Amino acid sequence: MSVVPFDKREGKIWFNGELVDWQAANIHVLHHSLHYGSCVFEGIRIYDGRAFKLQEHIERLFKSAELLGYKITQSLEEVIAACELVISENQLSEGYLRPFAWLGAETMNIAGQGCKTHVAVAGWKTFEDQRKAARQRGQELLVSSWRKPTAGCTPYQSKAAGHYMMSSVIKNDALAAGFGDALILDTSDYITEAPVANFFFYKDGVLCTPEADCFLNGITRQTVMQLALDQGIAVEEGKYRLADLDGAEAAFLTGTATEITPVRRIATKEQEWYFDKDHEIVVQLMAGYAELALDKVVAIVG
Ligand code: PMP
Predict the structure, then answer these.
(1) Which pLDDT belongs to residue 181?
(2) What is the pLDDT of residue 161?
(3) Best CA proximity match to 288, nearest among 231, 204, 247
(4) 3-class DSSP state for residue 294?
(5) Is 184 in contact with 146 (CB distance < 8 Å)?
(6) Is 63 a catalytic residue?
(7) Which of 85-99, 130-144, 241-255 comes out lowest in average pLDDT?
(8) Which of 40, 89, 97, 155 would bridge with 123, disulfide CB 3.0–4.6 Å?
(9) 3-class DSSP state of 126
């Protein structure tokens, strides 16, 4: 299947307050955020024509900008309405929404003072075959040789483009080594997350997940923790090292795009851990998540 490049597609994009033709949604090459990484963005799943956790995602978009020191001039309600408009105008029943905000070209000084804030929302249909296959197979994670800086080094709760440079590098390293994804440790050897997803493991009757002190506290992570509690599963947030994976029965990744993806294997150069990708806890949580997302139990479990 040939994939149409993102700048050559058809449809409508919401751009600073109005719907414009897809291919006309352009900016100048000297926009501040393109050079200094301060674009903030969201990824939102559309299930059955409805944006899942829309309010939470747009609130995070505003918070992301605020953490970088700038203010989105549109209102929260306006950006939410824009998301809904993009879904209906592009007739998206299943897909992905990408709202984002960034600083314009008024200055190239690093502080970016006086830059205009821009906002856009794009949305597109997604083809879930690869992700479904990964869910069925179970993901294999390479423990990255790159580390996350510890807490306080950067505003981790800002979903800012600048944070994603290393996500790309780390994911590419894992793919080049024949793995599907990566697991990242911090500079003190604690497990953090995958390049664009949070990490959980199940051991001794407890669902464990690293404390989100140096990575994004994902909306799916929070949803899954609550779901587990509602299902009577004990949940613990803590500081875990790779050795804590010894004896773990199951592991999985969570994220808006990733949903809940079971992990089958984690490997360093020296050591490997294997998990039951069909563990009942994982299956149960996947079913619960599908129910929340779709208001009924259907396909995303499969
Ligand atoms: N960590 C990172 C770095 C991510 O990019 C994502 C995806 N947004 C997540 C975690 C999971 O976040 P969420 O569940 O809000 O999609």
Answers:
(1) 97
(2) 98
(3) 231
(4) helix
(5) yes
(6) no
(7) 130-144
(8) 97
(9) coil
